[in-house]
């Protein structure tokens, strides 16, 4: 059978992800796996309709489709995202309808699930027959046990195609109807307390609700907020995954476009950031994805630490919990504070006015008090993954990360707490004595857990 591999790596066939495809080829020589370098040829596919049509015709003739890509900032690379947008813009969804589909990714398991959820949702929107997804750690292919798993996943996909196995749709179609937002004429300005406020949007002329929300928030800041449209930034292309930024955060695009200067001089110097975008398919636009991907010249260093971040979104965010989690996780990983997310799903314009005003008020209040909400699992888990990877496998290519993590205390390994290790060792031996073990668990445990807190409260 013929399987089309939609390669989402900007590095083409010299990517880690494609080495997994070569492994599958060697194990199943009876099947043809044809690689289409979607991300690497992104500009060509977008600018030349004949090239785009060639891709669609290959998909139309295939027995199955394998979405294969590396993870870039919680999702797929921006070039891959643009291709998905083109499918809708050019009415090419019919080529995907009913096709068996699967997902193969490589990553360090940092929010791989959000990327898988997104592409699975796209498969459901295209009415594909989804089989399963496989998330490989970058170096899994070098391990015999993991190679066996990859083999079984691939075999299962081919056999499912042979028997015309049905797929279960997980993500329902989106209802994208919204009510027009009409701001009221009255407006109460707020004191910005000298904070630097930047609103970044990808709004186009026909994005009425988004543009009106942006203008409304900007007006609350009494002319103290700068509004920048991403369409006006000179961005030559998406992240290439070349890791040239790994040593000292110098990007391959340095001096070639305006993005890095924009990020350093505008994004990093703001106290309050408002990101505004319209939902495209199940995410924001590919332009916003380019923004997040290109921000990786900071590598795994949280470049927005301590900032207040708010989101204005036009579209059905309430139907996209995966996107909401990405927004929350991105903010927490950056060690910034998510002030809130306001969408135009609210049909009452007066209430939306009030929500936008409250967003502006809170952003200034939080910035003035330097309030950063404690991280949940989204932030803590992500930070620990980066901590361990930069300490270990990724220390060599990401030297800038290693220096930053070492100098700022990111290497907070619990094994280094020697007093706690001694404490645990002592109690490990005490608990071997039955009478003491019974007394500790039956009489002392609960009281001792709250004892340090009670001491503190008594002092207060």
UniProtKB/TrEMBL annotation:
Under what name is this protein listed? Flavodoxin-like fold
Q: Does the keyword tRNA processing apply?
A: no
Give the source's domain of life in one word. Answer: Bacteria
* Stretch forming the signal peptide: none
- Does the record bear Flavoprotein in its keywords? yes
Instruction: Give every Flavodoxin-like fold domain span.
Output: 1-137
List keywords of the entry alphabetically: Flavoprotein, FMN
Q: Output the lineage of the source organism.
A: Bacteria, Bacillati, Bacillota, Negativicutes, Selenomonadales
Q: Name one Pfam family in it.
A: Flavodoxin_2
């Amino acid at each position: 059978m013929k399987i089309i591999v939609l390669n989402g790596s900007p590095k083409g066939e010299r990517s880690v992800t494609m080495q997994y495809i070569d492994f599958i080829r060697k194990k199943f020589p009876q099947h043809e796996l044809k690689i289409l370098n979607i991300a690497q040829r992104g500009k060509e596919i977008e600018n030349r309709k004949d090239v785009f049509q060639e891709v669609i015709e290959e998909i139309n003739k295939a027995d199955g489709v394998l979405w294969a890509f590396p993870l870039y900032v919680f999702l797929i690379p921006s070039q891959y995202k643009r291709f998905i947008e083109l499918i809708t813009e050019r009415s090419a969804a019919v080529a995907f309808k009913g096709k068996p589909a699967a997902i193969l990714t490589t990553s360090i398991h940092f929010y791989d699930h959000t990327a898988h959820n997104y592409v699975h949702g796209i498969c459901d929107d295209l009415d594909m027959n989804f089989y399963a997804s496989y998330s490989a750690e970058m170096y899994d292919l070098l391990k015999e046990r993991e190679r066996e798993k990859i083999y079984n996943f691939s075999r299962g996909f081919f056999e499912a195609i042979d028997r015309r196995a049905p797929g279960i749709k997980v993500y329902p179609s989106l209802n994208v109807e919204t009510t027009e937002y009409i701001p009221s004429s009255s407006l109460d300005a707020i004191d910005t307390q000298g904070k630097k406020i930047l609103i970044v949007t990808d709004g186009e002329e026909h994005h009425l609700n988004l543009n009106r929300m942006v203008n409304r928030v900007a007006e609350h800041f009494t002319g103290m907020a700068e509004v920048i449209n991403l369409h006006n930034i000179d961005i030559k292309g998406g992240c290439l995954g070349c890791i040239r930024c790994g040593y000292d955060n110098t990007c391959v695009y340095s001096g070639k476009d305006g993005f890095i200067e924009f990020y350093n001089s505008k994004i990093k110097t703001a106290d309050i950031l408002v990101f505004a975008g319209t939902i495209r398919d199940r995410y924001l636009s590919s332009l916003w994805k380019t923004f997040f991907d290109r921000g990786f010249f900071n590598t795994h260093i949280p470049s927005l630490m301590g900032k207040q971040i708010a989101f204005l979104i036009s579209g059905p965010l309430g139907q996209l919990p995966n996107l909401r989690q990405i927004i929350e996780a991105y903010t927490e990983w950056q060690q910034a504070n998510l002030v809130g997310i306001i969408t135009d799903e609210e049909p009452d314009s007066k209430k939306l006015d009030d929500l936008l005003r409250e967003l502006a008020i809170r952003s200034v209040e939080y910035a003035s008090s330097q309030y950063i909400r404690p991280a949940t699992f989204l932030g803590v888990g992500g930070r620990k993954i980066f901590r361990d990877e930069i300490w270990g496998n990724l220390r060599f290519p990401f030297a800038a990360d290693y220096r930053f993590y070492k100098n700022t205390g990111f290497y907070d390994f619990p094994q280094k707490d020697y007093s706690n290790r001694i404490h645990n060792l002592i109690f490990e031996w005490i608990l071997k004595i039955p009478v003491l073990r019974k007394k500790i668990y039956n009489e002392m445990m609960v009281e001792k857990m709250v004892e340090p807190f009670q001491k503190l409260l008594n002092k207060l």
